[in-house]
Amino acid sequence: MVTGRGADELLATLYREHGEALTRYVRHLTRDGHTVEDVVQETMVRAWQRPAVLERTPDSARAWLFTVARNLVVDEARSARNRREHGTEHPVDRAEADRTDAVLDRIVVADALASLSPEHRRVVVDAYWLGHTVPEIARRHDVPEGTAKSRLHYGLRALRLALQERGVTR
């Protein structure tokens, strides 16, 4: 039985003679560069752990290497990790915050706005979403400034009540 430095030399010879063909074979089976490297490396580690493999005839050693590599690929394909995790060639550049709350808030506000009268809804949207002043709102809707201001006041009161009914505010 070969041990120590002799085993390392036999392993290096084994890899030199069969490594390229083994790599092609595993690439054909997996089509994943990272897995190819892992499987070939694990196959060679197993050969190193079994010195008797190193002493086989070249054809016998090659058959053993290809069988071990195929079994490793099959084991990986059957693993729970493989069924649940999926890699990507293009990793995410940055993580994005969960915007679920913001989307839900928009839905609730839009629903509350829809419950307002059209006159109140227009002035509230003009003032708070479009940033218009009371004089600008009055000009846009061709109403006196006092009417625009009154509609804004009562529109905001109705909006607050609609949001309270939806459980948003106290």
Quick recap:
The chain is built from nine helices and no strands. With 170 residues, it is an all-alpha fold. Keywords: DNA-binding, Sigma factor, Transcription, Transcription regulation.
Please describe the biggest sheet, giving its number of strands, its sense, and whether it closes into a barrel.
none
* Domain module count: 2
- The CATH topology of the largest domain corresponds to Rna Polymerase Sigma Factor, Chain: A
The assigned structural class equals: mainly alpha
Q: Look at the structure and give the CATH class of the largest domain.
A: Mainly Alpha
Q: Number of helical runs? A: 9
Helix content class: over 70%
Pick out the low-confidence regions.
Answer: none
Order of helices and strands, N to C?
HHHHHHHHH
Output mean pLDDT: 84
Give the percentage of residues in beta strands: under 5%
Rg (C-alpha, Å): 36 Å
> How many strand units?
0
Question: What is the end-to-end distance?
Answer: 82 Å
| Second-tier CATH architecture of the largest domain | Orthogonal Bundle
Give the CA-based shape: rod-shaped
Keywords: DNA-binding, Sigma factor, Transcription, Transcription regulation
Pfam families: Sigma70_r2 (PF04542), Sigma70_r4 (PF04545)
GO molecular function, one term: sigma factor activity
Family: Belongs to the sigma-70 factor family. ECF subfamily.
